[in-house]
Write a structure and sequence with these properties.
205 residues; alpha/beta; Arc Repressor Mutant, subunit A; Rossmann fold; 2 domains; 11 strands; 41% helix; elongated
Length: 205
């Protein structure tokens, strides 16, 4: 499978399908149809069939999908059939929340370290973590082999931190700072700016 040829909008829907399948499994269901899955997530059955067929044939005409099998396949496609170590950069309110969030573990992610540049914060604790200095961040991330970072620093610092993360070998950045990052083509960035999403919603109110 060539990941570059799969439209990002389809990749973005796969975790939604996976979450719905996991809810079905929790209810004891064994099989589902594209129609039933579509009703769960608000996407047409035809679109679901088209999305899933990008990765092979996982269902049978008339019998639908095995929930367990499709869950396993989606987890494998998304590469969350393993545990990914993640670092958090920025020990403010958002950094605290992400470090303490319990929902990552059962989705394939494990926060292993949190960094900040404020000397008064370095050495203090957030839950089980001791905040580490960003001055040591590049070598620490390299030594741990971490490929994913969550960036919760102010916009003014985000580009400089992103550059250091790339130097450290990070290949995926979840960016909460309200700024577009300039990174190499082989580094994937996802942007999460709550104020932008709120502004998008108020259009409809």
């Amino acid at each position: 499978m060539n990941a570059e040829k799969i439209p990002d909008i389809i990749v973005g829907r796969l975790p939604v399908y996976l979450r719905a399948l996991q809810r079905m499994a929790d209810k004891g269901l064994k099989t589902t149809s594209s129609q039933e899955l579509g009703d769960q997530v608000g996407i047409s059955a035809a679109q679901i069939r088209k999305d899933i067929s990008q990765f092979g044939e996982f269902g049978k005409q008339g019998t639908g999908y095995s929930i367990e099998f499709l869950t396993e396949r989606l987890r494998s496609i998304l590469k969350v059939d393993r545990i990914w170590d993640v670092v958090v950069v920025g020990a403010g309110d958002m950094g605290h929340a992400l470090s303490n969030y319990q929902g990552f573990a059962d989705r394939g992610f494990h926060v292993v370290a949190i960094f900040d540049n404020k000397k008064e914060k370095v050495g203090s604790k957030i839950g089980e973590f001791t905040i580490e200095d960003t001055e040591t961040m590049v070598e620490r991330i390299k030594s741990m082999g971490v490929k994913i970072a969550m960036l919760t620093v102010p916009a003014t610092a985000a580009q400089d931190v992103a550059k250091k993360l790339v130097q450290a070998g990070v290949r995926a950045i979840l960016n909460y700072a309200p700024i577009t990052l300039n990174v190499p083509n082989n580094v994937k960035v996802q942007y999460i700016d709550p104020s932008t999403h709120l502004q998008r919603m108020t259009f409809y109110l």
